[in-house]
Amino acid sequence: QVQLVESGGGLVQTGGSLRLSCAASGRTFDNYAMGWFRQAPGKEREFVAVINWSESTYYADSVKGRFTISRDNAKGTVYLQMNSLKPEDTAVYYCAAKYGGQTYSLLREASRYNYWGQGTQVTVSS
Question: Dihedral (C-alpha) 107, 1, 90, 19: value to the nearest 10 degrees?
Fold first, then answer.
């Protein structure tokens, strides 16, 4: 079993920044692709960003150029740096882990992930 715990969410004004963290424990962290998803009230969970074991990254078009995903294997932590935040970024943000290699097309699908955190709320006001 892998445990994922998110932190760093909060309330920020349009144009502001937040850094989300996801601490992983329970198994070898290095071999997991780590993704961020978000879900707004009444909407489906959507892909945000992913980083694989070789630190290759992929982003949703809606956040490209504004968000940056990174990982620190020594700390067992993945980060999501969010800049130039917009009201439409408001959602609960979830960290997820998928063991083994997958193509980016598959890593965009929430159903492919093995483990999930409880989520952290991000609210962007205008």
Answer: -90
**Those residues with Cβ within 8 angstroms of residue 40's Cβ, 6 or more apart along the chain or in another chain:** 90, 91, 92
Separation between Cα atoms, residue 96 and residue 17, nearest integer Å: 22
pLDDT tens, residue by residue, 33-48: 999 999 999 999 999 9
- Type of residue found at 8: G
Q: Tell me the two tokens of residue 102.
A: 């997958």
Q: What is the pLDDT of residue 28?
A: 67
The residues with which 124 forms a beta bridge, in sequence order, are 12
pLDDT at residue 35, rounded to an integer:
96
Residue with structure tokens 């709320």? 121
Dihedral (CA of 39, 40, 44, 48) sign: negative
